[in-house]
Write a structure and sequence with these properties.
By secondary structure, the chain is mainly β. The protein contains no helices and four strands.
């Protein structure tokens, strides 16, 4: 079994943003359908071939660009 360890002396307390543009809206909760989390795709922004498969860059509905995968 692997245990992750982190030196808590390196942590700093979170501070509230000073400017409005620094505010990040809370991310919406996923829908639960048949006991599974489901997310809606807004747009496929890009794609690429990786070996024999294709990878997609997904923009999730109701999420910001920072959540693209």
């Amino acid at each position: 079994m692997i245990h992750n360890m982190f030196n808590e002396d390196l942590l700093t307390q979170c501070r509230k943003p000073h400017f409005k543009r620094q505010h990040i809206d809370p991310i919406p909760l996923p829908e639960i359908i048949n006991k599974k989390e489901e997310y809606k795709v807004e747009e496929i922004k890009n794609y690429r071939k990786q070996g024999y498969s294709i990878q997609f860059l997904v923009y999730w509905k109701e999420y910001g660009n920072e959540h693209d995968q």
